Fold each of these.
Amino acid sequence: MRVRIAPPWWFAVPAILVYAVVVLYPSIAGAGSAFTDWSGIGNAKTFVGIDNFKQLAHDSQALGALRNTLLLTVAIVVVQNGIGLLLALGVHTGIKSRMALRLVFFAPVVVSPVMVSFLWKFVYNPAPDAGLNAALGAVGLGGLRQDWLGNPSLALWSVAFTVIWQCAGYSMVIFLAGLEGVPAELHESAMVDGAGTVARFRYITWPLLAPAVTINVMLSTVGGLTLFTQIIAMTNGGPGYATDTLSTVLYKQAFVFGKFGYSTAVALVLAIFVAAVSFLQIGYLRSRETAA
Amino acid sequence: MALDQSVSRRRLLQLIGGASVAATAVGTLAACGGGGSGSSSSGGTLKVIGVGDQEAGLRKLLDTYKSSHSGFDFNLSFAPADQVQTALRTQLGGGNAPDVHVVYPGNGSAMSMAQLAKAGLLADLSSQSWTQKIPDGFKGAFQSDGKTYIYSPGSSMLGAIYNKKAFATAGVEPPTTWSELLSVCEKLKAKGIVPIALGAQTPWITQLIPYALVPGTVYAKTPDFDDKMLAGQASFADSGWVDAMNKYLELQKKGFFNDNPNGTTYEQATSMVATGKAAMAVQVSAVLGAFRAASQTPDDLSMFPFPATDVAADNWIPAGVVVGIAISAKSKKTDQAKSFLDYCGQQENLNTWAEAVSCVPLYGDAKVDPALTLFLPALKANKAVPFMDQRWPNAEVQPTHFAVVQELLGGKTTVDAALKKMDEAYRKKA
């Protein structure tokens, strides 16, 4: 019989101290500037109470960015995980090239998002004889040529596509890990009972994949809500404000407009928003896991 | 001293805190993970950071200064303008900026002389003798509260960089009035040449055509427009800016730009003009070097003032003091840095830098790049207007200008709504 001995609490003191100095203090002190008009440089700083938050509620640019952020997040969560799941199911079969395919689908994940963004900027070149437009022309679909990043109605979706292209392989790997955990005997006995592929997916694979779904939805939601790199690198929030997200707005407020106080207020709201969404999501998805 | 240190450390931690709140938001998870960049200063050498446009001049002077001053050494780095804005501001906020760093003249951006001087981050250069030679008209770009904080080699002209061969193919000459410009564009277009290359996906490019037009549509009639704006007696939406923006859109409607300007970058537009696929691009003379470098026949590239009206005498030109350098107030090598800036201020060295970046030297009668000849009469007649943002009161107007131009080109807003948005940004406090 094993006896569990709880370690003395003070064992944690060094870690707590380091955490307090490196994470807690700067975060709280930094959050304090959300209530000031600090420019980010110099000492001039006045306490303005909740003015920054009031301004945020009426800031049309931030509200537009919120809309873009939500649209992007929904698109990324649904499509990236949908494709990730299909890819996982595809490479989880007995096909010969499955290892090579896994590698190919996962490869974009290990490339820096900035590199991927610049690469796709070439692909999205609006000239009819370049990138994607040239490819469309070559297969006789010249009529579908677009100004992918320059058309304000299209730019957001072009960025979303790039993110999905890069990150679908990541979802695939997590689903694949989930699929490996589905016992083969369940499938075998279901097959004996005459269940088809769809029925087996619906009643065996899908419920047992619940933990993988939780992780994937969580990660892609947080990733979508905080999307920054690809937007700054591909469109810088443009054309106009068409692809601004909350992250790019807070970046611009701090480093372009020199409004660090206001930017911190945006960051604080975003952080609380992300935490709240994640909390609700994980609550729901976990209950689904136990139900399954 | 100890108190000083603890204060600055606290401020640094707060900055990191702000950044860490931001990082919670901005940094992405494993799949799309982010990263940070840092830099540290090494002892002994003068740390200098500039933007790409400055490289040709700044590097040349640092090299010659080093060769004539034993024991002097420098560590020079460059970055694109928007990256400098982020990295350098963070360093300034943390109190560890490079000894000598890039600063924009006048006011109107978060890295402008007036904004940084106000925060006490720049060393006062007023005691240097070259500062006495700054022409009166340019003092606003160099001085805040009567003290000089920035060195710049001179002024850059803004106009059309054009490909002479493309003009010859269409049998046209540089226009001097708006109507002539339209007919030149028409003829170029008929020859299958894109009349004006516009890479409006690169934000700062969006502003160049309005900057080229408003000296004629606004300042020729109201030379004190900036003062009136500051006093609240004028607005963008009720001024010659309307005419300028309408003309911008007229060029687009007539098909005088390349297709999809909002999806085209500065680099793509540059190569279009350099290769003769496009005939011209509205640009600052400081990038003439980049255009020449992209061309197989650099001598084919020259410049002319971009006409804004049909009255040739009203076609004033935009001429802005080019991006300069300043000394960090917190630098421990202030003496070394000041002596280098004093060296830059000597006529011969000023000319060297000015020539390297195709600008008109701040003072003295040096020869200028022949491509700028057509600008000199307006410059002599005092018909030059500094780049508009240099007198805008906060850092928000210029980015708003970029965004509304992209919206206009994308058909997402109207001239009136766009200019009202700029007015709104202008009225915000600094």
Note: Chain B has a mean pLDDT of 86.
Amino acid sequence: MSNLASANPSPAASSTTTPARLQTPRRLFSTLEGVFHEEVFFLILSVFIGIFSGLAVVCFRLAIDWMHLALLGPLPQTHSWRLFAVPSLTGLVVAALVLHVFPTIRGSGVNQTKAALYIFNGFIPFRTAIGKFICAALAIGSGQSLGPEDPALQIGASIASALGRQLEISREKLRLMAPVGAAAGLAAAFNAPISAVLFVIEEVIGRWSAGILGSVVLSAVSSVVIVRWFLGSEPLFRIPVTTFKRPTELLAYAVLGIVGGLASVAFAKSIGYLRPRLKALPRWTQYFQPALAGLLVGLIAFLGAPQIMGAGYDSMDQAMHGQYAWKVLAILAVLKIIATTFSFVSGTPGGMFAPTLFIGAMLGGAIGDIERFYFPQLTGSTGTYVLVGMGVLFAGFLRVPMTSVFMVLEVSGNYEIIVPVIVANTFSYLVSRGFQTIPIFDLLTRQDGLILPSLEEDREEAILRVEDAMLPVPATILNAQDYVDANAHRIQESPDVTFLVRMHPSGWNIISRDQLQRLFQEGKGELTLGSVLPAQSLPSLYPDLPLDSALRYVNDYALVPVVNRANARQLEGVISRNSVFEKYGSRRAIEVPSTT
Amino acid sequence: MSWKFPKLIPRSAPVILLVLTLAAATGFAAVSHLVFRYNLNQQARGRRLYQQGFAAASAARYDDAIAAFRAALTCDPTNSQYQLSLARALRDSNDPRRLDEAESYLIALWQRTPQDAAVNLALARVAAHRGSIEDATRYYHNAMYGVWNSDQDANRSRARIELIQFLLRKNAPAQAESEIMALATALPPDPASHLQTAQLFAQAHDYAGALTQYEEVLRLNPDNPSALAGAGEAAYRTGNYAAAQHYLRAAVNAHPEDADSRQLLATTELILRTNPFQSHISDAERNRRIAAAFAQAGERLTECAQQAGLDLKAATAPATTAAAASFTASPLPTLQSRWTAAKSELARLRSPGETDLPDAIMDVVFQIEQRTAAACGQPQGLDLALLLISQKREAASQ
């Protein structure tokens, strides 16, 4: 934006050279130039990113539907040759496109967007958006067990990045364009702006940043408005009656959380194990990997489980309304894990959001039915367990605990089940973290040879605070209202070389033994210490501040007072240069994580 | 290969925003057109699938119907007609697991158009499937007072009749009767409607109401055989035996193979022949009828005692403990005593001053018939006639 302002003549210059009838529009133009400084311009741009991403996602969803109708027909089919022929043959086409035309569109797109933010200065080629649109629509429309949300996220990020480059915005802002577009794309695909914003913060940006929050929210909201305008505001699922009556039932949800956590681990480990091995196979095999994955998905469908094809929202809806027995639900969950694992590791472009929800829904329904069989007093309906199950897999597999809670609430529009959701998600998250240290998206990034920051690491990192390096209150504290000779007399017994001085009426100062003796020798012993010290007082710190904040002062001052927040005259301790560096030195060096 | 946008946009914020606005408007228009065309295609496809589903549902192939309606809904997700049809197919498939989903669709529709009578009726039927009287009644009432697309009165009446039949099935005759009364107040002048209402009254055991409706049918169509038979039975049940005889005779004449009416007619005529309280009969005839009834009651008492293994002629209770207990617990010995006592009074019937005696003797007869009916089962022939006369007398005195 800096060049935007400089590209325009100043109002004074234009007034001397422009005829009077043109002066009014020019003045207005100049006023507008002044209004649109970079921050404001970036916020407005976020709205446009949301609009463009929303329009793209509308087209993307239509393309998937159209592909599905054209390739598999409108009615669900069982035991038809199309079920395995279509995904296999489409897999060949997708593989050829990925290998020769769009090499950057493999996989989900979430980690690629994160890499764009942290490594490539926000650069995502526009070709990625085109390739992702075509190939993901082909793959999902043909029945590969993948979802449209992650590709929509990458399409949004790619559009935003292209727009930012075209407008030549500053590098700092260009870097932020990717997450802004990602939020717009995901919100549009999921029809859930809050979840999209949280997911982008938790997974793409990887840290809480107030600076970008406004833009992310604006883009997400505007894209959702666009999608709802064109495709209606119908929710993804028709939510049945959900109930939570007795707190003791939380035990049942905790069990669901534990089972969901274990399923998440199995799902993540199978992807983590197979993906690098398939990538390491000779290049010619990559032409056939998506086709073979499609064949596997098709065979599962042909043998009686067509529900696992595509995103599977219709089947989730039916599961929510108790259409399947628990055995069917459990089988569908297992089959979906297998189908999605192979679809994803084969390099077929497509997302894992919808499959994760599908697996969670089926698993939740199955566990709920089993629990209610053995404990008929449980009041939760199948729909309640299905909804909670969705969040459980989200928390365990994608490792986005906050998004997982809000996603369930946003999708269901029901706050009655918030407690079961939080309990189950927490158990799932803890179980998953216990057995699978690295979250799935970080794992994929590391398999690609990149190391990116993660909110989970950030959360777990112990922050050093001032109180950790704080020394005890010194035995000798001088008083500014006492005479210099009295203070000189007091320090004779002390071994310290620097002393804190309590100023009047408030504040702190510092004086060394040498300085005080020099004042005494200069005959200023009859003066108060406060009158001979510089007026500017010493900065003070609070015990709970990060230790980094002490670094600003410890080079300039030998001692920095640490005071109580409620009473600035109450000394809690002191900080010195040595104490700070000793604390940092005692901390283990940060290890570079391995890539496996 | 690397693609780049051509740098066409001048570097000025207002111009950029103007260009972006134009681009957004253009994109909006283009996507609008695309979505419009797509929706047209989808709606056409949805209609075809709906027709398939409708045909399958009409042929009771509910699985096929459900699949087709689901597919139609994916083409046109907000179409109320498709949702309603899917919900109906789910409900009618007789799979309890599908009721939840049917209800969910219907509730969503109901939330959008709570006044829609068809939706309320479908919800009422789901509630009826679940056996919930409260919910079913509420939704049936909503359907009755809701908005129908066509044939409003007939549809409302049908909904009420469905509710009445549901309440009768659920053994709630009091609620059913109040609904039938409401139904009867707004009937069209149509024999079929009155006939159906009369039958509903009869099912709810309101035979007076039934008789009124049957008579209304006969007023509109005097030869209606169902109405004749129904009116005959209703009159018989209310104790109006003269009317019953009239209608049942007409019914039997119109339909000689109607065995039920014939049987009722026989009983009715027997009652009319044997009832000592019949008006317009002479004293001699009344006394004759009393004597015949008294003799019949004595026979009935003896037969019933034999059936129960009791010897009423024995002067004292049997010696064995079990037989003695049975003898003293049974009302039959007491009745036998009363009958024997009354027998000696029978000769005084002809005396002109004995105005209370006929009632006293018939009281013994009625008690015998009622107690033996309870102890030995429903009687036949003259005993049945006497029992019915006793019941009518009892009802009249109450």
Note: Chain B is about 75% helix and 0% strand.
Amino acid sequence: MRLREIAHSRTGDKGNTLNVSVICREPGHFGHLRAELTAERVKAWLGEIVRGDVIRYELPKLAALNFVLQKALGGGVTRSLALDAHGKSVSSALLGLEISEPDPAGDK
Amino acid sequence: MNPLVKPRLVRLGAGAGYSGDRIEPAVELATHGELDFLIFECLAERTIAIAQQGRRKDLQQGYDPLLEARMRAVLPIAASKGVRIVSNMGAANPLAAAQKTAQIVRELGLPLKIAAVTGDDVLDAVLKGAWLFEETGEGIIKYRDRIVSANAYLGATPIVGALDAGADIVLTGRVADPSLFTAPLIHAFGWRMDDWPALGQATVIGHLLECAGQVTGGYFADPGFKHVPDLARLGFPIGEVAADGTVTVTKLAHAGGRVSAATCKEQLLYEIQDPARYLQPDVVADFTGVEIIEDAPDRVRVVGGRGSAPTQTFKVSVGYLDGFIGEGQISYGGPGATARAGLALDIVRKRLELTGVRTDELRLDIIGVDSLYGNTLGLTVGEPPEVRARVAGRTASIADAWRIGDEVETLYTNGPAGGGAATKSVREVLAVQSVLLPREIVQPTFTFVEI
């Protein structure tokens, strides 16, 4: 299944850095999301979009993860040659990631 | 509001989330929202640098281009309902914005006191120092001759001062966006400027509200997955804040949009890096303890923001001229569209070489195939029915920038079959980077303007 089935996401920008939140639709899926969606997997999926490191922050009270993507905006919003200079569309790309199905009963 | 009586509840409305935002939702909020304060956040990272260029051309300009339209729309009803206004629409020229607003207030015959917050313009101090850009570590000295603006992100203090002194309208330049919201709360509840937990929760409130419609269902809808009703009449948010900092985010019942735990979570994490350390001029806010509870449809309670003492520096946005970007686009459709767009891009690349157009960086995209994610995602299935070739290049001269779009346009008669809808453009690049300045260099203040 795609990540989109169990989570939603929003992208924000600061200089040449993007952040992408990934939020569980059902808080009970947070353990599954945390196990599936490592920083390494996000970096591998987004490939050439992210030239720097990917750092993951956890927000268990919100059943959410926040990924910080360094060097992801072509030198920064204000000087990038990209069509989507803000990287607004990256959240949608991440939601296309294939993940395994969560346990229907929620986290164990 | 009687300053001697602490209110039980303060109602904040967000009237704009960016410079060009819709105007009617703010009028609707002022009319029906039973607001104490209406706040307009209108200043993106680069907006102030653009405004500084406007001010250079005309000393009475440099404030938000929609200031007059917004004020004329909202002031009559705001004045009659006793709603006070805080906004960064002062942009590069808060004093001129306040004077313009005073002129409107005189015309309308409204008894309003208007203050301007100044002190964010630190261009002189920046030009005198050997500061480093925060992100790249480069010295700014290299950019010295091209720097056009330097504005510090001020905190709540000067806005609180103006509100304490009785201002009905406070116009600022660059301040941290959440501070536009924390200031009315600090003023109304009398929170101390070293009450870090209160300032941390106030930052949560400001951050949730500052993008207006982005917390009431804007930037959220995804058909089949996330439904939002009536986005054409999206209502902007109201924050009902109690003296202990508990906030309920809501909207007018008849307005479009929705407020849910999901909309609030997306907005809470918007533009956040380390959620335990959200750096603000007045506090380092910690979002990791935040809890978001849906009490009723379109009523979401948010508690648990915390904070600690701020750092010893102010963040300063430095704007500098950074050459030009020239761009051209042309569309191809039908069978083989992607191949013809690819051929078009090859031709333009060679033409730029053959004719000696100097680019520091060149980007070739096929919109519909790889313009957003490059070759990263294997999401494309089959050939798209139409695509658009796009060439963008960075140049030192404006003449070279125009040559890029020209070489796309000549594809009409010299390129692959069936190219149409060619466009070209050039823009001067006003880049923005940050430096950190010691706090003592930045001296914010406020002044009232004559009515």
Note: Residues 19 and 68 of chain A are 4 Å apart (CA to CA).
